[in-house]
């Protein structure tokens, strides 16, 4: 009985906070727009009896999903989001791996401090940090002032409200999610493996590629997913740092909801985004499970 | 082994050493790990570095592998100065304490790893790996990953991997530390077997003296960055050069005392039976001879007297021992060669007679070292060169042997080991018994430091 209760807790949590909201959004995505509060029809009226329920289900259709395919804005937004997420992930990996590597190689007494420095930005609100980047990247911002002062440039660079600013913001925000899993795999690695590789004739560089990188594979995969998945649906960074040409699905979603008040279409966009994200999440978990089975 | 010629290249001046340490010092900050060390190791040797943790044995091995460079001095292998040669350029391979198997590679790929770093042809690599798999009896496990095999198998993979490149020198860093005792003993013999088959020079680091004694052709006992003694296992055990070595290798009793030349001592005269003192007539044989007991007397009188005559009457008896004699030097009845050293160590006990002691040690403060298994323990005073009286404090029953902890008068503790030839129930010595601990005049050694 107690074991059942223990298992029930996470399932209840998922049911209440994931499955029920998902079903509500799913239902809205199948509804039609209406000038009402809430702005869609039909609404389920249980007092009407069996006839009301059947007519409710009859009113649901896939109209909104068809609409998404008719307008190229949506698939372009999905594609653009995918591209931005992919590039950001690669950038975060290229910056995060050397950081994680040097952290894992640092003297043991320094590691907790370094780890704290990586986590430290989380102590400030995410929004405030993104606004701070606006202050840094704007035409009169700190970065341009500094570059003008050094004489490297004669005119301020336009960075804010471009895709460059979006990449900077995303990589900055999600870098810890890349560093931490890689660090944890590298830290666990036995130094004698590298010595053994050298002993068997490897140079330091080839030992890195033949031993260190394969052994940190799980960390790399985990870090990439942790950056890629939230970036795909990112809304705050592109809307604050990006410009009019920055097309991301999160932004489209927001506009459908709040500017157009078209909840059914917005819900359809959200459902598609969720389905797109579920695929890599399932792939990721399969990979992890396989790894565990192999090691177990 | 017995029919082979004696393998002792270290005693052959024409033999060139494979490895030479010349005045090697290694410092880590203020800590001196290796202190001005000079040592030769010969080809095909199985050389063991033995010592407690922190004695510098691992540092010495890591310098051979190229993972540390000496602060001063030179290490040469096959005549070549190795100080600036990185690990991947040395014909030296190492078997790591943790085995350091690559977890993402199969057993086959682990063994092939070193060979793939050379310009060896693919089928030659395959042949060599299969040869190594066969040597270490791992053929069945070639495609498994390291986490899918047992500890003993992993250890064999590590050995196969380090031998695959046929190194001139193989370093083994506590190779059997992670194995349980039974498996360790089997593996020790396997190691010796493989060393003999491949003819590779092995240098093994261990803190387990039993392991070092079993596998090595020579053992170097280290302490605080120095080698205290290098010798064959039997010489290290039987003739340690210091109390440190005697104490580190096996169990030992140490008794401190002052040496005295034995030539001038005259205990023999004082204790000789009176009948021998002044033979009145050289033709009268009155040396004591075995005397018959009651049954013998009766038989003689009733049966033999008509044939061989009357018994000699009265029987010549030794005078009863005086009280002083009981505590005097015990060589009363033994044939002890002249010379050697007597060690005065306690006013309540006779001096210990060490006939193999060096006479030049006269007058020095020395330590007498004797192994527990070289002591005999008995309830009655035995006929031995040295016999010391004490009380049994403790008995440790170890199955095949029992160790008796005996407290001598004056507080000196002595450990004596006796084989349990008889069943436990028949053991006649027990706690609190007063016993005699005895040993021959050559059973122990005298040590100056």
TrEMBL record, chain A:
GO biological process annotation, one example: transmembrane transport
Write out the similarity annotation: Belongs to the binding-protein-dependent transport system permease family. CysTW subfamily.
Question: What SUPFAM superfamilies does the database record attribute to this sequence?
Answer: MetI-like
- Species the sequence originates in: Planktotalea frisia
Gene3D superfamilies xref list: MetI-like (1.10.3720.10)
Query: How does the record say this protein sits in the membrane?
Result: Multi-pass membrane protein
Q: Which GO terms describe its cellular component?
A: plasma membrane
Q: Which superkingdom, per the lineage?
A: Bacteria
Name all ABC transmembrane type-1 domain ranges: 78-284
Q: Which residues cross the membrane?
A: 77-101, 113-134, 165-186, 207-229, 263-284
Q: By which gene is this protein encoded?
A: potH_2
Q: Name one Pfam family in it.
A: BPD_transp_1
Q: What is this protein called?
A: Putrescine transport system permease protein PotH
Cell compartments where the protein resides: Cell membrane
UniProtKB/TrEMBL annotation, chain B:
Check the record and name the PANTHER family matching this protein: PUTRESCINE TRANSPORT ATP-BINDING PROTEIN POTG (PTHR42781:SF5), SPERMIDINE/PUTRESCINE IMPORT ATP-BINDING PROTEIN POTA (PTHR42781)
Keyword annotations? ATP-binding, Cell inner membrane, Cell membrane, Hydrolase, Membrane, Nucleotide-binding, Translocase, Transport
Residues in domain ABC transporter?
19-249
Specify the species.
Planktotalea frisia
GO BP field: putrescine transport
Which InterPro entries does this one have?
Answer: AAA+_ATPase, ABC_SmlMolc_Importer, ABC_transporter-like_ATP-bd, ABC_transporter-like_CS, Mo/tungstate-bd_C_term_dom, NA-bd_OB-fold, P-loop_NTPase, Transp-assoc_OB_typ2
Q: Where is this region: Disordered?
A: 264-296
GO MF annotations for this entry? ATP binding; ATP hydrolysis activity; transmembrane transporter activity
Can you name this protein? Spermidine/putrescine import ATP-binding protein PotA
Enzyme Commission number(s): 3.6.3.31
- Can you quote a single GO CC term? ATP-binding cassette (ABC) transporter complex
